[in-house]
Specification:
68 residues, mainly alpha, elongated
Length: 68
């Protein structure tokens, strides 16, 4: 499961991640995003992609640990 989420975060289009993040925030707060939220959007997307890389590395580490 972490590998699938990691692959999705790394390979997903940044625009697609932006829309999903905006929808998540709207559902969570029931308020539209403010202008300052859009200014931080590139940082948020790159952090999500970094989390995806960490999840992929974690999954690879677990596979190697179990294989040994």
């Amino acid at each position: 499961m972490p590998a699938a989420l990691g692959c999705y975060l790394v390979l997903a289009n940044a625009d697609n991640l932006t829309v999903k993040y905006q929808n998540y925030q709207l559902a969570r707060t029931m308020q539209p995003l403010k202008d300052e939220d859009f200014r931080n959007m590139p940082k948020i997307i790159w952090r999500l992609k970094a989390v995806g890389v960490v999840l992929l590395l974690f999954s690879i580490g677990v596979i190697f640990y179990v294989a040994i």
